[in-house]
Design goal:
Layout: H1 2-14, H2 23-44, H3 55-62, H4 67-94, H5 103-114, E1 119-123, H6 125-135, E2 142-146, H7 153-162, H8 168-177, H9 183-187, H10 202-214, H11 217-227, E3 233-236, E4 243-248, E5 253-255, H12 257-262, E6 267-273, H13 281-289, E7 292-295, H14 300-304, H15 311-319, E8 323-327, H16 342-353, E9 359-363, H17 369-377, H18 387-393, E10 396-400, H19 413-424
Parallel strand pairs: 1-2, 1-7, 2-3, 7-8, 8-9, 9-10
Antiparallel strand pairs: 4-5, 4-6
Helix pairs in contact: 2-4, 6-8, 6-19, 10-11, 13-15
Length: about 425
């Protein structure tokens, strides 16, 4: 106990070291408190003890000022001096870590976001990172759960070299939620030269470096969340390497996410090998506390469904009291969802998950003709929508304009966030 008290005393005394910029303001605040005391004394004690406290009292009495007036003036002046001293001391302390003028806005924003709904979003690729970027403007109670089965490009090279889960989509989601200035740009920076570096992004190398440092991918992700000062949290669907396997309608078995994308033929089902990889406890706790769980948007069989394939994760979603919403893609994807309409997308999610979504968001507004023509050249077409089978299943469909206006047909984060949060209410 005495040792603890001694440490506290030493901690307090450190504030008195030269160069701290604090002592002068403490003295100003103390002077203000003394004046406030004198004011209260004159107002409440009627001067009984004041004649021998300070000549100031005698001076005010010789001027013929009543005690209530001199006491009020003394108290107000003291209050002003005390406030100036405390304000200057706070600015001096805060200037060492942040801009004091920006602090009120930052505190207000943080408190507002902390009061937002508890949301867990699952998926991968560009769709999930864009969605997280929109959601972080409305809530800080946000958890991204990312599919880690990608095996192409920089991610594939790192997987083969270091035996880690896919880091590419994790990097994009970490960048989307980071509050560190210019960190999203840095995380996505891709090296264009350098033997062994060309083609890799800084974020991918950053995650792998943390894994090498800790020896544990789950701990590496936790450390990344802290270092990047996330507005929320990002976790992999499993911290262990897992391979995605698909069975096509033809009966053909295809292993590896890249091969699934490249192999012609519609996918019947997908699973992981090993089939029961572990899930981080933070993900299970987030799902248990969630008010809203969002699946997608993203590639149906290679991003959205793989994000919830671990059995423990599926069980947590099934048992969660949160509303479950699936966001269908705007466009089909060649070799993966050719000819599949919105209802077929929904059925694939429900069958793999073992729980029906409470609502399905479908983009139904017209798309820019020029963009549609460009996508048609690559075999991509708008996902068809017929409300009849949804009505027959008793599934709520949220229709609307959720697409971003531009050369690329993708969901608009702000439009999507606004409608998703309405589902919470």
């Amino acid at each position: 106990m005495w040792a603890k008290r001694a440490r506290r005393l030493l901690g307090f005394l450190r504030w008195l070291r030269p160069g701290m910029g604090v002592k002068r303001y403490v003295l100003v605040a103390a002077a203000g408190m003394l004046l406030m005391f004198l004011g209260v004394a004159q107002l409440s004690w009627q001067g009984v003890f004041l004649d021998w406290v300070l000549d100031f009292v005698l001076f005010t009495r010789n001027l013929g000022l009543p005690l209530w007036l001199s006491g009020t003036v003394s108290f107000l002046v003291g209050l002003g001096v005390f406030s100036l001293g405390i304000r200057a001391m706070n600015r001096s302390i805060l200037s060492a870590v942040t801009d004091p003028d920006e602090l009120p806005e930052r505190i207000w924003k943080k408190r507002r976001l902390e009061a937002g709904p508890r949301v867990v979003a699952l998926g991968g690729g560009t769709g999930l990172s864009n969605l997280l970027g929109g959601l972080k403007t409305r809530t800080a109670n946000l958890t991204g759960v990312v599919a880690v089965t990608d095996d192409g490009g920089s991610t594939g090279r790192l997987r083969r070299s270091f035996d880690v889960p896919a880091v590419g989509d994790l990097t994009d989601c970490l960048a989307a939620l980071s509050e560190v200035e210019r960190m999203p740009e840095l995380m996505k920076y891709r090296f264009q030269r350098g033997e062994g570096l060309s083609g890799h992004t800084f974020g991918n190398l950053f995650l792998v470096s943390l894994f090498e440092l800790t020896g544990d991918f789950a701990e590496a992700v936790r450390m990344a969340d802290r270092v990047l000062a996330l507005s929320g949290a990002v976790y992999p669907s499993t911290p262990h390497p897992a391979r995605l396997v698909a069975e096509l309608v033809s009966g053909e078995r295809v292993e590896g996410e890249s091969r699934i994308r490249e192999t012609p033929g519609r996918v019947r089902k997908v699973w992981l090998e090993p089939e029961s990889p572990p899930v981080m406890p933070e993900v299970l706790r987030a799902l248990a506390r969630a008010q809203l769980i969002v699946l997608g948007p993203g590639s149906l069989f290679t991003s959205v469904i793989p994000s919830f394939l671990p059995p423990d994760l599926r069980r947590a979603i099934a048992e969660s009291p949160a509303r479950l919403v699936y966001v269908t893609n705007v466009m089909t994807e060649p070799g993966e969802t050719d000819g599949m309409d919105a209802y077929a997308h929904y059925k694939a999610v429900a069958e793999h998950l073992g729980r029906r979504p409470d609502a399905v968001l479908v983009h139904t507004a017209p798309l820019e003709p020029g963009a549609l023509a460009r996508y048609a050249e690559e075999g991509q077409y708008p996902v068809a929508y017929d409300p009849a089978p949804f009505d027959a299943d008793g599934v709520r469909v949220v229709e609307g304009d959720f697409a971003h206006a531009g050369a690329f047909v993708r969901h608009d984060p702000e439009k999507l966030t606004a409608r998703l949060l309405e589902c919470v209410r």
